[in-house]
Amino acid sequence: MSTVHFFFGTLLAGMVALTASASLAQEGPIKPFKDELFSRFEVLETKDGGAYEMIDYQELRDINGRDSEPERRVKNAYVALGPRRVQENETLALSGRTLDVTRVGPSQGGAFTVIFIHGRGGDRRLGVNDYTFGGNFNRLKNLVTASGGTYYSPSVKSFDDKGAADIAALIRYASEKSAGRPIILACASMGGFICQAVSRDATTIRFLEGMVLLGGPPDPGLPSTPFAKAKLPVYIAHGSADSVYAASGQTEIYRKLQSAGYPVRMSVFNTGGHGTPIRMIDWRKALNFVLIAHK
Q: Which helix (H) or strand (E) holds 246?
């Protein structure tokens, strides 16, 4: 479904036209927020005109140096708590079931929507925690709300057909609340099974703008799904040393998509483990890519 005109009418006015360079993918309708802390990575290797990049990651610098308590609390410089003023816990009644979500931003009329799906053992609190994962969820909240969007962090009850149906219902709900404006689905770790199921749901993908996959399970069938047939953009972020889902699996899928001229980007964090993409993904770059690439 082409909905970009709702969003881009005001935010893209005067913006320089996108080129094929992945270095420009960060530019777009999402306004900057602490880019000097979250967006300045050393790129060790690029391929495919910048669509693929290997990013320098160092645990001592990017965890111990960034956190006041490693993996528990990021330093205050990385956080701004303004979005808490528009953050609400809600229980939504959707398709005969209930779904607990935390919403950040307007309940209706948002310029776009981002939905984050946690992995095993998580719930809605993970995606709105301001201080864990190096403050990256706080940045996401700030990026979305500063650009007029709405962010949902739901509690996924199960990573099966029922869980996927709940998220499909949330996607349709969010589309109704935003009058059909763009929706981006981001799935981390085992939450990737939800993205896989949604990609095969021909009805639900009509409401989507694209996906962001963070350290998730590879999906060899992705290129033949309704999602792929609709040419919806996908941004993949993975740790090169992920011991849960090997980076090689996602890299193979990236190559298949990229060789077919598909709108795909992949960022691999050198030496990074399973949780590294959640901490290190440049949300502004990823969201802008999806929003601009879907034309």
A: none
